[in-house]
Amino acid sequence: MLDVALVSLIQDMSEKAGVEGVIQYWSRVGESLAKRMGKEAYLGWPSFNVALREKRTAFAIEGDVIALTDLAITDVDGDVVGYVYALETCVFTPTILRVRYSVGEMSRADQLVAEEYNNTVEDIAVCNFCVIHLKFRAEIAKNITIGGQSLEFYQLATRGFTGQTKILEQNLKKIGINPDYVRSLLRNYACVFALVLKGAKLRGEEVAEE
Amino acid sequence: MNNDTKRSSLIDKLYRKELIEDNPFVDVAAYLFLEDIADKQGAAGMNTYLMSLAVSLAKSMPMEEYKTWDEFLEAVRKSESIITTFESVFTLTDNCIVTTICPFSRGWLEYTQRIGEFNPIHTEVAEYYNATVKPGAVDTGCVIHQTFRNAAVERIKVGGKPVKYAQIAAILADGRKKVVPEEWLPPLLEKAGITRTQLNMIMRNNACIWVLYQER
To answer: Which of B15, B31, B32 is facing A97, going by the closest CB pair?
Structure first.
C-alpha cells in the first residue's frame, strides 16, 4: 500500500519540485538505502554468487537475481573479474499492478521522470523507479568487496512493464558482451547488469584505447 | 459463473499475490524516503506529509455506489471496493471489519531484516497523530491507512447515503497494540456488534479492527 501511496505523490512532487527534483529525491533514497544496508566482504566470486542465490547479499532485496555464470567477464589477462546478473521481475511490477487495479492508471509523471533521467543522466530508465534502483546498485557495489577489492556496477539493459527495452551499448562494449545476446536475455529477465572488480582492465577498454 | 465472477477470478489467478503482497525494495526505499522527510521537518511535518499522501491516494481512486449494504459488504470482502483494495479482510458482523494481515507488515519485516531496528520516528509520528488527530495509530503505516480509510469512505455511497468509518484497534507486526480510548469503546463496540471479549479474541491473531456504518 505504501508504494501505491507514494506513486500518487509522484505527480504532486513533479509539479512542485519539477521532474529533475524527483530525480534528485529518488537518487538520495537509493543512496540512503544502500548506505543503511552496510558493507559486505566475500573471499571470491563463488562465495558472492552463492550469497546472492541464498539472498544474503544486499542485492537480493530486489528479488530473484540470477548470476549468469556462463557470462563471466574477463580482463586483458583472461582472469575472471566479474559476472553478468539478471533480475527476473522488476521490483516495480507489483506496484504498477497494484496501481492499475486500485487507482486505475499510472501517474503520467512516471514516464516524464524516466524521460528526464534518460535525457540528462543515462539513457536506460524505463520508469521513474529505475532512478532509485540504479543509484542503489551503484552504491551497494561500492560497499561490497570480493577478495579485498570493491566492485563497480554497470547497467546493461532494462525492460519496462509495457515491453519497451533500453540497452546501454557503451557498457556492453566495455565488458565485451554482444548486444544481441543481452537483447535475448530480456525475453526472460527484466533487468540485466554487470558487477566487475573496481580498477580491472577490461578487454573492451583495451580495444577502445587501440 | 457470471461474467463479473469470471473476471474477478482471472485477476485473482494472475495478480492477486502481487496485489496483496508488499514490495520489499520499493517499500523499504519508501520508509527511508519518509525518514528523510522526518529529519528535515520533524514528527509534525512527517505526519502532515503522510496524511496528505493518504488523502491524495484516496482522491485518485474512482467514486463508488452500491444499492444495498449486502452488495457493499460483498465488495469489501473480495477487496474489490477501494476501502479494502490493499488488504485481506473478513467481516465478523455486518459492520465489524477485521484486517487479517497489515498491508505494511511485509515492508516492516523486510526493513527489520535488511536495515536493522525500525527507526523510532515511525512510532513517534504515530504518537503525534494520536495526540493531535485521532487516537488509534501504532506506527506510520497506521497513520497512512487510517487517513486513507477516512478519505476513501467519503467516496462511497450505499443506497444513496454516505458511509462512515471508525477505528477500534490496530496491532503492529511485533504485537504492540493501540485501542481507542476507554470512553470511546462502548459506542464503537455497539456499532460493530461485538463484545469486549470478542474484541480481545480477534486482536490476538489479526492486524486491525474497524467499523463501517451508516447514520440512521
So the answer is: B15
In a domain, B53, yes or no: yes
pLDDT tens for chain A, 210 residues long, are 888 888 877 877 888 888 999 899 889 989 989 998 889 999 999 999 999 999 999 998 888 899 998 889 999 898 999 999 999 988 888 888 888 878 888 888 899 999 999 999 999 999 998 999 899 999 999 999 999 999 999 999 999 988 889 999 999 998 888 899 999 999 989 999 999 999 998 877 765 565
Rounded CA separation A154/B39 (Å): 32
User: Given B19, B28, B141, which is nearest A101 (Cβ)?
Assistant: B19
Number of domains in chain B: 1
Question: Cβ of B39 under 8 Å from any chain A Cβ?
Answer: no
Range of the domain at A83: 2-209
